[in-house]
Amino acid sequence: MNHRPRTRTVLSCGLLLVPLAVSTAACGGSASETLSTDPYDASDQISANTPADGRKKADPDKPLELAVKGDEARITDVTATDATGRYVRGELSADGKHWRTIAPLAAGTRYSVQVSTEEEDGTPGRKTLVVNTKDADDRLTVKFGPQSGQYGVGQPVTAELSKPVTDPKARAVVESALKVDSTPRVEGSWHWVDGKKLHFRPKEYWPAHATIAVHSNLDGLKISGGLYGGPAKPVRLTTGDRVEAVTDAAAHQMTVLRNGKSINTIPVTTGKPGFSTRNGVKVVLGKESFVRMRSATVGIAAGSSDSYDLPVYWATRVTWSGEYVHAAPWSVGSQGAANVSHGCTGMSTGNAQWFFNTVRVGDVVKVVNSGGATMTPFDNGFGDWNMPWKEWRDGSALKNRASTTTGAAEREQNPAADARLRPQF
């Protein structure tokens, strides 16, 4: 079989003395013969195990296979890509007669397959195939949080899956497709909170004024069995200044730092014995200029000596169970001297308003020297930073790989939908 659409200028003797623009050879050949590198159409040389025109959809659970008809040509290269530019890995037989994919095809995806061939005399050929795969019946979707916007340097990234993933290999597929990229670059890792939830955080807090892009490459990818990845809306986050509020419960004061420098020291009161404020790092979850705090919502019996029903202003939330930094004008006499609250950090109305206006969601609030337990990592807000880095990395399905990723994001929460979201003061 010969598909050569060209002839070659053969210089069998003598020396070419004329400019290359002139179609003349020293001896032999014809003035009408020109050199050409355009490959011929190899369509009738290549067969595939699926229709090459894209009209009939291929089964993504089966490998794509190509073969050369006859003995006069071989396959030299195959490039298969989807519309987003993702490549499919494949292997070519030693004799160049067969090629097949060695990675699963994506479901519901259109592939362009470029096949290069070569005849025995070196003449190149080419064929382009279009392969459309069937859609998946079972899809796993991802929801990233928070919404795009600006956050504090303590804000973790979260990913909510539409169904649980428990198999380690399937988790590795999912996690490797969830991308977090930041400028400047930092070391970070995903951590599986449970089968449906992952958090991403850097080893340290995010840099101030970082840009973070979160997206998924999971759409169409095979996860396990008949489960394939679905779409996810990307988010873009930025961080502001590095704002940290450090409350020393024993000294009864809060120090607020911006980019490492103290900008205010505030007299405070924290939780009294039996209601001690949680130690450790918390992250600002939201801000409410007014909230009504009732003791019954946190299990304190009405009419008891610890019951309360108070209007509270300038309330900055740090746990979903109701721990705030807020105005407490009724305890000004104890602020800076004693701990008399039911777990919240109380301060004067003026200081609470200043704090409310200074911090943003994602900023860091740390409590030290309290009699309370340490803030838990995941079940009451964002206590992610209280988990040691090694333990955090152990929660990754890719823990044996290098963790030089970058990024941040937070899961959007709806306080009204959670029965635990009760204020305490």
Descriptive key words:
28 strands; 425 residues; mainly beta; 35% strand; disordered C terminus
Structural summary, described in words:
It is built from three helices and 28 strands. With 425 residues, the chain is mostly beta strands. A five-stranded mixed β-sheet has the order 22-21-20-28-23, with no helix packed on it. It has a four-stranded mixed β-sheet with strand order 1-8-7-4, with no helix packed on it. Strand 7 and strand 8 form a beta hairpin. The longest helix is centred in the middle third of the chain and has 10 residues. The termini are far apart.
Structure described in brief:
The protein has 425 residues and is mainly β. It has helices spanning 168-177, 349-358, 389-394, and strands spanning 40-41, 46-48, 65-68, 73-82, 90-92, 98-101, 110-119, 124-132, 138-140, 142-145, 149-151, 157-161, 178-183, 188-194, 197-202, 211-216, 222-224, 227-229, 235-239, 243-248, 253-258, 261-267, 280-283, 286-294, 309-317, 324-327, 345-347, 364-368.
Derived from helix and strand composition plus strand pairing, the structural class reads mainly beta
Largest sheet: 5 strands, mixed
Numbering strands along the chain, what is their spatial order in the largest sheet?
22-21-20-28-23
If helices are DSSP runs of H or I spanning 4 or more residues, what is the number of helices? Answer: 3
Unreliable runs: 4-35, 407-425
Our measurement of the CA-to-CA distance between the termini, rounded to an integer number of angstroms, reads: 87 Å
Helix content: under 10%
Query: What does the average pLDDT come to?
Result: 85
Give the overall shape, derived from the CA principal axes. Answer: elongated
Q: How large is the radius of gyration?
A: 32 Å
The total of beta strands comes to 28
Strand content: 35-45%
